[in-house]
Amino acid sequence: LPRVLSGIQPTADSFHLGNYLGAVRNWVAMQDDYDAYYMVVDLHAITVEHDPQALRRRTRVSAAQLLAAGLEPQRCALFAQSHVPEHAQLAWVMSCLTGFGEASRMTQFKDKSAKHGVGAASVGLFTYPILMVADVLLYQAGFVPVGEDQRQHLELTRDLAQRFNTRYGKAFTVPEPYIIKDTAKIMDLQDPTSKMSKSASSPGGILELLDDPKVNAKKIKSAVTDTEREIRFDEENKPGVANLLRIYAALGERTIPELERDYEGKGYGDLKKDLADLVTETFQPFKERTEEILADTGKLDAILAEGAEKAREVASRTLAEVYDKIGFLSK
Ligand code: TYM
């Protein structure tokens, strides 16, 4: 089976709808057709100031949500990044292959450091993409299911894999991004020209999966649209309606043309009400499952420990090969 690897940051108390549609849903769909490795990237989560108690809680909440979404420990390896020390070890090697200028071109660092100024950002935030490179390459992943915002990091991953392979001999599979266009960039409900994001969005613009279903229904109903009345998919002129149609199509397993036909002659209020119901139907059981899973911390931690063991088998093999190729003495 071809291999797949992806990760999500434990930096919030709930995943948002963008995480779910852009990534998590695809992870679940891929676990049978791929040899799948999925992780909660706690090493990445400390690149910005954080509270240790919150990190512990959010790492478990993240893992629980992944299980509630349908990941099954028998069908994939689910683990915490920090449980596999090879991530940090390979990141060092890859950072020595990365140009300073090359790293400086990563737009996510520019965006994230802009708020408080580059000088206030951690070096870890700067080298974040290189740790992500190591994440992917350790597993020889052929495919990496992510949203559009991770594309540049995967280009860096491909470049560095090729660079290593050319300089020192082939050690890495060169991965492909696996980005499903229709759901790769879910937009903010209040500002449909920017992506839904835990850092940038206003609270009304971001739909958190574990939030009270009533709150979420209300957020859908107050989503920004436009002053026309017609329900049609036009991203340029009607970004709010287009975003709602994309979300509806993805959650309801319908096509956008079908939805356009169904809502011909109807108003935005009808569309929003139906979508709010669909969101409630989808995420109320999800929330309940997540809470059940979180109630048994022992079991959850055991699943992560087992996942880490599976992951280390693959990761340690890659790292040994890299250490050898690069000229480190074997022990
Ligand atoms: P993170 O934790 O920010 O986001 C997790 C996943 O959700 C996707 N996503 C979105 N998709 C569609 N629309 C949106 N509005 C939206 N917002 C977020 C992200 O693209 C991502 O797939 N650097 C990564 C984590 C990571 C990783 C890895 C991913 C670390 N190592 C190795 C893949 C492979 C990140 O910060 O994702």
From TrEMBL:
Q: Which residues form a coiled coil?
A: none
Catalyses: tRNA(Trp) + L-tryptophan + ATP = L-tryptophyl-tRNA(Trp) + AMP + diphosphate + H(+)
Provide the residue positions that the database annotates as binding L-tryptophan.
135
Q: Subcellular localization, per the record?
A: Cytoplasm
Q: Where is it mostly found?
A: cytoplasm
Q: What is one term from the GO cellular component aspect held by the record?
A: cytosol
The GO terms describing molecular function are: ATP binding; tryptophan-tRNA ligase activity
Query: This protein is called what?
Result: Tryptophan--tRNA ligase
Position of motif 'KMSKS' region?
195-199
User: What role does it play?
Assistant: Catalyzes the attachment of tryptophan to tRNA(Trp).
Summarize the subunit comment.
Homodimer.
What are the protein's UniProt keywords? Aminoacyl-tRNA synthetase, ATP-binding, Cytoplasm, Ligase, Nucleotide-binding, Protein biosynthesis
Record's family?
Belongs to the class-I aminoacyl-tRNA synthetase family.
Q: The organism's lineage? A: Bacteria, Bacillati, Actinomycetota, Actinomycetes, Catenulisporales
